Amino acid sequence: MPYDLFCDTLTYSLIDYVSNFRRVLQRWYSQLL
After folding, report:
1. What is the torsion angle, in degrees rounded to the nearest 10, for the CA atoms of residue 25, residue 30, residue 27 and residue 24?
2. DSSP character for 2?
3. Tens digit of each residue's pLDDT (9 = 90 or more) over 1-33
4. From the centroid of its chain, how far is CA 11?
5. Burial of 12 (0-12, 13-18, 19+ CB in 10 A)
6. Less crowded by CB within 10 Å, the N or C end of the chain?
């Protein structure tokens, strides 16, 4: 597995994780209010 591809995959999965986390956090926050 090339190093660049590994870095790209890691970056994209991290972005995906952060966006999912923010969406869940927003949903939880809106339910709280």
Report:
1. 10
2. -
3. 577 888 889 999 999 999 999 999 999 999 988
4. 9
5. exposed
6. C
How many helices (H) and strands (E) the chain has is answered by 1, 0
As a whole number of angstroms, the distance between CA 31 and CA 9 comes to 33
pTM: 0.58
Compute the distance between CA of residue 9 and CA of residue 1 in angstroms, rounded to an integer.
Answer: 11
Q: CA of 3: how far to CAs of 7, 8, 9, 11, 16, in Å?
A: 6, 9, 10, 12, 20
And the tokens for 22? 């923010």
